[in-house]
Amino acid sequence: MFGLKINRNLDLSLTRQLCDQLRELIEKGILKSGQRLPSTRKMADELQISRNVMVEVYEQLTAEGYLESIVGSGTYVSKNIVQDRYINNSKQIIKSRKEKKIEENLDIVNNDIIQFVGGIPDLKLFPRKLWSKYLKNTVQNSTADIFGYGDILGDFELRKTLTDYLFRVKGIQCNPDQIIITSGSSEGFMLTARVFTNKYKSVFVEDPTVNFIKTIFNKLNYHLKPITVDKDGMKIEDLEKYKQAGLILLTPSHQFPTGSILPIHRRQRVIQIAETTKSYLVEDDYDSEFRLKGVPIPPLQVLNSSRVIYVSTFSKNMSPGLRLGFLVIPTDLINDFRTVKNTLNIRTSTIKQRAMAYFIKDGHLDRQIYRMKKEYKKRRSYMITLLSKKFGGDITIQGDETGMHLQLEFLPEKYNLINWNSAEQYGIKIISFEEYSLIKGENKNKIVLGYGNLDLKNIKSGINRLVEFVEDEIKE
Amino acid sequence: MFGLKINRNLDLSLTRQLCDQLRELIEKGILKSGQRLPSTRKMADELQISRNVMVEVYEQLTAEGYLESIVGSGTYVSKNIVQDRYINNSKQIIKSRKEKKIEENLDIVNNDIIQFVGGIPDLKLFPRKLWSKYLKNTVQNSTADIFGYGDILGDFELRKTLTDYLFRVKGIQCNPDQIIITSGSSEGFMLTARVFTNKYKSVFVEDPTVNFIKTIFNKLNYHLKPITVDKDGMKIEDLEKYKQAGLILLTPSHQFPTGSILPIHRRQRVIQIAETTKSYLVEDDYDSEFRLKGVPIPPLQVLNSSRVIYVSTFSKNMSPGLRLGFLVIPTDLINDFRTVKNTLNIRTSTIKQRAMAYFIKDGHLDRQIYRMKKEYKKRRSYMITLLSKKFGGDITIQGDETGMHLQLEFLPEKYNLINWNSAEQYGIKIISFEEYSLIKGENKNKIVLGYGNLDLKNIKSGINRLVEFVEDEIKE
Q1: Do A86 and A24 touch, CB atoms closer than 8 A?
Q2: CA-based nearest distance B422→chain A, Å
Q3: Which member of A77, B38, B150, B386 has the lowest number of beta carbons within 10 Å of its beta carbon?
Q4: Is B340 domain-assigned?
Q5: Which of B86, B147, B214, B293 to mutate against chain A (most A CBs within 10 Å)?
Q6: Is the pLDDT assigned to residue A237 strictly greater than 50?
């Protein structure tokens, strides 16, 4: 009947198979508008299937508008259906499997490149067992509301836990209303950029600094004003001359990429500037937990909680794969941030937030940080030893007190012409300060060496490749 | 010495306690700039603590810039520190615990209100055991790269799995490159709005429709052009007269809030319009799996994959708390979407994506949908029975073939003046079509009744309250 075919070996139901075929017959005009169809009984007999299936098929196609049922008369192909143009996309080939295979192979090659990029913690040391236990407990034992949309500002349990944690570890005093949970610090910056988009025209950024932040503010039409970074972080005296309100973005605990720490007199000065110009400081505290000696440096937020927007993330102390971060904002700004959050309507899953709350409460975040600190310390000393042995007085190492990266500065006269991009041919990925700089040409002899996601073996081969590359480059 | 105190019962390390106190003494000017401090040995003796702790304290405060160490001379309070203004924020009261208690109590009262709002599935029936098992397995057994930032377009494993799933369940043919994973359909709309922000000025929306979508497009300065919805969905003939390129947003499988299904002749017509005006259709397929009879209606995407942006979500068939959704986009638009995704730099956690991939592969999504369909079917019939018994010929029920909500229309002459907002005083939350309408005044007698998150007992008391409320309202 109409060439309808049934294939009992297919993974598709009989109803689906018949609907698909009848639709095609109608769209192609083989079954004409207004044409009467045989009864379900007759069709079922013909195709040797249960009549129920045929009833289902007719009902389905009637609901979709392909068929019309006229009481006491029968079932007809609907009028109004365009039948002369059959949009054939069944020939579209699902080719991507093979394409992807090639990409995967490329990836393997790519994996062999030792990545000295900063900002990625050791993914292999993620506390899998513990985290999966907390996820499991959360999913199995929480009240059902964790499966709902959840509070757009973040799970209250996590925000409450963070106030205790932040006070204990960083000295921050705030209440849960000041905390906004984000899916990583990138969302934190985006929200901040949006809150002030009609208020400020300028954003003062450290130069050099990470690129994604520049993109966020550029896109929202802020003027980016670079402020040079020296060995003590942002040069606040250069900022002072602007006497202009705006957002001031800085990484006082561990500048990226230089690794500098902003000393107290510069901190006080930048807070004074914020107060007199009615600016806000946006403090990016991405990895200060990993201060390898002593305790983390108290954030700017502690010096003045009404002028500082504190941006943090679990990407470095746990894993970027969690997509979890938070803001601590001044009380005055709570409503503005809430409005922006509601407009964007982007929420973070409550499940992982709740799991994180209990993970922190039970002391596991502290333990993980402790473990990672020890690990990073080992890697850092090993790296520094190797570097000093190979390059001797040709290099200066800076920014090695915190985190998972350091700054390697080569004697400019000898190394200024190195094209760091070509290091990939030697099996290492190196990012030079030039790529992070707004004002170009001043940092050609400086590179970032991230060691967060590299074990000792990788560090060793990586440094060997670096030496080989640098020697070949300066020979030329 | 300097009034320094040590409290061994505190949850803070000795180093932290001493650093905090010394910082305060310096900021207050009690310890003056340039003042020489006693040696670590002397301090340690005085405070009866280990000298190592005191060394740590001095090193910490030196790193922060509070102290300076001069070789062969000793440790001094740094110069340049502003000492006349001590920013006192230690008095900031963490009051929120108590405030929150009050809010929580309000919540309990709030919970007693029976929510007839649409769009929320039964959170109590979330497959907790299974989902926690898949999360656990993913976290414990995947390769470490799932803890990294991940592919910004989404985990390849999930995108590949979705191509198979979408073909099997909805007839969609696409390859993984066309799929973009989002954190819910709301992000899907936001990305779409951004991709076309410089290309189109107008967005044609169903009237009535959900409000969050209007907000997204409004915010990006699109002109919202309302197209009336009747019992067959968007009135495509009204759209036709515009002859103008733009985005056309629609919910063809189950319109929200009317519940109508767009029949095939209107589908063909709207696709033709998109082709001739070079517009794109944005198909919101939020709950078509829950077609209570037969199989899901094939999406518009199947009719023309190059003019349709297909927006979907796991919020309805699994849970909003997962924050997981996806887009299927035409091949031509892949680069544009990638650019917007990169600029926004918002990613979805790979962990849950990978877990979802295996959950789908193992057939659990199908099983969950099957289970929920049966449940919703029961609730729907029960609700319809109650409604018919109580209101008889005064009501018409529509849109009851799919999903988790239906449209209840009252005879206009008798019920037109009901103020549905005041239903909360009767313990029910009812949203009328007026709240979803761009053109006001035409839908006062229509309400949405969502039953996704209400069990039979709640439905019964809810309908009783509805009857009581309506009777009191029309008496006045």
Answers
A1: yes
A2: 25
A3: B38
A4: yes
A5: B147
A6: yes
Q: What does the pLDDT look like over B387-404, one tens digit per residue?
A: 999 999 899 998 877 778
What ipTM is given for this predicted complex? 0.80
pLDDT of residue A101: 42
Nearest CB to A63; choose among B87, B304, B401: B401
**A positions 240-269 inside 8 Å of B (CB):** 261-269
Using an 8 Å CB-CB cutoff, list chain B residues near A94: 163, 173-175
Among B11, B79, B123, select the one facing A147 at the smallest CB separation: B123
Round the average pLDDT of chain B to a whole number and report it.
88
Q: Are residues B232 and B360 in the same domain?
A: yes
A209 and A310 part of one domain: yes
Contact B246, B204 (CB under 8 A): yes
Residue B378 domain-assigned (yes or no): yes
**Beta-carbon separation of A303 and B347 below 8 A:** no
Asked if residue A304 belongs to a domain, the reply is: yes
- In order of B422, B437, B473, the CA distances from B417 in angstroms are 12, 17, 8
Bridge-based pairing of strands B67-70 and B74-77 is antiparallel
Residue B438: give its domain's CATH number.
3.90.1150.10
Nearest CA in chain A to B317: A147
A78 near B CB under 8 A: yes
The per-residue pLDDT for B111 is 60
Q: Which of A333, A364, A395 is the last residue of a domain?
A: A364
Residues A283 and A394 in one domain: no
> Are A84 and A214 in a shared domain?
no
B443 pLDDT band, cuts 50/70/90, is: confident
pLDDT tens sequence across A407-459: 999 988 888 778 888 999 999 999 999 899 999 888 888 999 999 999 999 99
- Whether A328 and A174 have beta carbons less than 8 Å apart is answered as yes
B318 and B351 belong to one structural domain: yes
Choose the closest CB to A268 out of B82, B174, B262: B82
Q: Is B220 in the same domain as B333?
A: yes
- Tokens representing A397 are 């190492």
Q: How far apart are CA B128 and CA B147, in angstroms?
A: 23
A352 touches chain B (CB under 8 A): yes
Mean pLDDT in residue range A5-18? 84
Whether residue B295 is predicted with pLDDT greater than 90 in this model: the reply is no
In a mutational test of the A interface, the residue from B13, B132, B328, B402 whose CB has the highest number of chain A CBs within 10 Å is: B132
Q: Where are the beta strands (DSSP E) in B6-112?
A: 36-37, 67-70, 74-77
| Chain A hits for B11, Cβ within 8 Å | 168
pTM of the model: 0.83
B173 and A297 within 8 Å at the Cβ level: the answer is no
Helix (H), strand (E) at residue A216? helix A211-219
Residue B301 lies in a domain: yes
pLDDT of residue B96 exceeding 50: no
Range of B81's domain? 14-94
Name beta bridge partners: B428: B114
CATH, residue A257: 3.40.640.10
